[in-house]
Amino acid sequence: xxxxxxxxxxxxxxxxxxxxxxxxxxxxxxxxxxxxxxxxxxxxxxxxxxxxxxxxxxxxxxxxxxxxxxxxxxxxxxxxxxxxxxxxxxxxxxxxxxxxxxxxxxxxxxxxxxxxxxxxxxxxxxxxxxxxxxxxxxxxxxxxxxxxxxxxxxxxxxxxxxxxxxxxxxxxxxxxxxxxxxxxxxxxxxxxxxxxxxxxxxxxxxxxxxxxxxxxxxxxxxxxxxxxxxxxxxxxxxxxxxxxxxxxxxxxxxxxxxxxxxxxxxxxxxxxxxxxxxxxxxxxxxxxxxxxxxxxxxxxxxxxxxxxxxxxxxxxxxxxxxxxxxxxxxxxxxxxxxxxxxxxxxxxxxxxxxxxxxxxxxxxxxxxxxxxxxxxxxxxxxxxxxxxxxxxxxxxxxxxxxxxxxxxxxxxxxxxxxxxxxxxxxxxxxxxxxxxxxxxxxxxxxxxxxxxxxxxxxxxxxxxx
Length: 465
Known about the structure:
The chain has helices at residues 2-17, 20-23, 25-31, 36-64, 68-86, 89-94, 101-136, 143-150, 152-159, 161-170, 175-194, 207-213, 216-221, 223-227, 230-244, 247-278, 283-289, 291-311, 313-337, 345-373, 380-405, 412-436, 456-464. It is mostly helical. α3 crosses α4.
């Protein structure tokens, strides 16, 4: 439907701004005249922004009330401005000399980290709000498919690695930030038009209320009056936030923590270090290599769109972990017995493909699980932001593991062992979750989980095995 298409376009822009700096780790760090550690601090600030966006989102919900279109529009505009501000680092580099070089590097790290931190806060809130909007306006039987389609935005943004690679090699490093920033600012006004329709809850309200709910100007103008009631409502929202972390949600978050350590590590390792240090690929060639990641994410999204509403979250989770564990195990054995090149570039690309297929399926599944197991009374974007926050903490750890343990390819065996262990632990969390999934009181807060008609006994035996 139209709102899903508009959401995909917006998410592509939001994701693309600070997605490629991970893939082109070495290229952008050299362009900014920073060493690996200094540049990693800017990337870590992105993860910190994801974490703080969880708590910042509580205040945002109270300021904007139920005007979610206003939230998406406002924070998309802020994201676009911050993307443009990041380009100013190029001005610092032009004034670099031998005398002030070290001080400028510190200034670049501080400035870049602040911009990246603020961007991730704004973009995460806009992202979670758009996903929540699409969930809210999707039919119950189509929610899994629509959320899976939203993940196409991540896949399409991966395809943009190819032109970005040529931009970095033949043009300027800041050109992608400039382009996406301008698009986000323009798209701010499209959001308010594209999502200007009532949700299920709003259908019971008057026509005047429904027409005003999508108006960003009305939402922003009401912020001042909302401050007077903010304190007690924020306390209530924080109390609601505590109710999110029931046993089931805690297991899901623990699983995403383990798996995000693996993903944060293999994202940088397989796409940047491995390709450039071991296989000596140029920047544009790395971009072409990411076609395998694009295809993997497309395959994962299509698979989930086809099976998520039929087989349920536990079958999909088991499928994802099976792919991840087998791929990690192959890399572990090949790197141990053959070396960092594991027998050739094509084998590496095939294994990268399956690593990202497994991650894509898992990521979509755990979003569905968070929505299914989360309390109905708590805003969906708060539930999803808690997921992103935990994932960001874990990805920080995984990214540092890669930078510390890579050793020019000699640490691939250790890193692949970490990926294997983390995925096994994540599978264990979902195995426990399956055992306790419906040991709750059926109230207005919680509803039993539909497993899509899968035979419980057979699935239980598969997970335990």
